[in-house]
Amino acid sequence: PTQQPTRMARNLILVTALITYLAAVAYGQSCQTTDNTDYKGPGNNAGESNLVILYNIASADSCCQSCSTFAECKYFSYSKAAKGAATYQQCILKTSSAVSYSNSGYISGVSSKAAKLTHAGSLTCSSPTSGIDYDNGFLGQTLYNTADYATCCAACQNYSGCNYFGYAASNKACYLKGSNANSKSNAGVVSGSIMTPAAASVVKRTGKRGLGVFDTSSCSDIKLLTGISWAYNWAAQADKGLKQCFIDLGIEYVPMQWGLPLALSNVDTSAKYLLGFNEPNFKSQSNILPSAAADAWKDVASFAKANNMKLVSPSASAGGDSDAIQWLDQFFGNCTSKGIDCNVDAIATHIYSCYPGGVKGYTDGFKKYNKPIWLTEFACADWESGNLGITTWEKMQAYVNDTLNRIEADTQYERYAYFGTRGGVGPLTGVFDLSSSALSPVGQTYNCHADSTGASKCNSSPSPSPSTPSPSPVTPSPTKAPSPSPVTPSPVTPSPTKAPSPSPVTPTVAPIYPKYIGCYIDTNSRDLKNLGYRNSSNSVRLCTTVCKAMGKVYAGLQYGTECWCGNSYGNQGGVAVNTTCNKPCPGLSTDICGGDSRNSIYQVMDPANAIADDSETPSSSSSFTVFSLFSLGCVLLISLIM
């Protein structure tokens, strides 16, 4: 979806307009422009050198003047072209023009900077001091319509000579000052100062929240994430461009021993923790048998001990070629039988689920190991979100809020990391805007969500961007977009391919699944041919999710504890009296799980996406049927299975 201006962007527009006027009048400003041209950064990426995007800028001259108010801005691109139903009047301020290219409708230019504007954008501001004003040092610049303290801070950072400022909420005025001489009481003013990153006290990087960092993430991206305290990249070392950035920002980097063969000599030994093998129960990921993992763990443990590092377990995860908890049980069992010390300091896992409580409902199953839990990948992926109606930024933000509320409240969850920097596992999942160095609406929510103490990680939470037409709900994919995986063992793991930015389309109304069909007669010949399971935790949600994962159109719940799946129904006697489906589901007593020789039938997916039924009727064994999970959504309650 096309990103619309955030509240902060709109605030910056107001501040920019005022500073622009002052700069243009007082110091003069001229720009050299070229029509139908745009600039890329040194890496030949369109958004790489973007500093900020301003909307509703009237002309290229105004864009030029806006560039003059940002110390890091040296180049700009301006477009007034209509896109869809909107006319953007978009001004993109840039730090580099390394690669110029033809782009119809864009006007690009080089700023002739006013010498006065010297503050670097990387500076930050002190915590606000209420009721204090600085009487001397006023620079003669008052900015009105300034939204808040943080916006006043941004204005001061981008005006030469401004080291202190005062903000009056009553008239939204921002006063730029050169010194804090002659402080005095003033009940209506909140004052602050510009600080270097080393002295900054606004961001306190504590708590559970982190991020898996990949794609083209830059330090300017990471600076936006004031709410995270740690990061990893599925590799043994931080990316070269981010290592110092993490140090400067106080973000803890956590390396990973991704798979086999071991490459421990590449691991960053300055780190406190070392993550174990990535998704070893996936053939498409590190693909390690529990016995082989136990054998290798002896060397991993010795390395960690020698370097005073704590160990996080291999991240066996939902939706793999074998069950995650079963894999870990076998891993620890092999360690015990072989006399290998496989003690870990935390248990890691991943889950992709869009259901309310689905993420934590699954990962709670790992509490059995009596260790802190690290949830190192989670998101609401596009193969499931469309079917659940999560097709707007607002609904995706609600999912993130709900998931974080649950995790933050549980003390056994020591750390968590969201999956998706740009694009992630769907166009609505990335924390960064697809084409600029700005937080997406989901990124704003993830970044600013209150931690377990109730403290917000932001000075003020940006409002979500206005929703643009959302993409049509995506047909569920049978497999999860892979975590980054190395082609050959190396200190840097190749990143996954970024999902392309979708073009705006007209939203369509998708069928809502699961959809209740009715109560139907069954016999020993079985109306639905595939046994999902027999289980004392049966529920409508669990059965319909399992049948969807098996690629079957219909789910049938029977005898309270049984779940049957198939692509047709009604062939063993047809519809039954609805009241004969009367057995409460043992996993959720408000659900009805069929009756004696009666199926409660639900449609769970579009028939066009079905996988053909098995030709043979399954065994009547009372144990859970083991099958390949083709969609991660099906496993949100697997932890409940006996």
Compute the average pLDDT: 75
Biggest sheet features: 6 strands, antiparallel
Q: What is the structural class?
A: alpha+beta
Strand content: 15-25%
Terminal CA distance reads 42 Å
- Which outline best applies? globular
Mind telling me the C-alpha Rg? 28 Å
Helix-strand layout with pairing:
Layout: H1 7-27, E1 31-40, E2 50-54, H2 60-68, E3 75-79, E4 82-83, E5 86-87, E6 90-94, E7 99-111, E8 124-125, E9 129-134, E10 138-143, H3 149-157, E11 164-168, E12 173-177, E13 183-195, E14 209-212, H4 219-222, E15 230-232, H5 240-249, E16 252-253, E17 273-275, H6 290-306, E18 310-312, H7 324-338, E19 347-352, H8 358-363, E20 373-379, H9 382-385, H10 393-408, E21 413-419, H11 441-448, E22 515-521, E23 530-534, H12 540-549, E24 554-558, E25 562-566, E26 584-585, E27 588-592, E28 598-603
Parallel strand pairs: 14-15, 14-21, 15-16, 17-18, 19-20, 20-21
Antiparallel strand pairs: 1-7, 2-6, 3-6, 3-7, 4-5, 8-13, 9-13, 10-12, 11-12, 11-13, 22-28, 23-25, 24-25, 24-28, 26-27
Helix pairs in contact: 1-2, 1-3, 6-7, 10-11
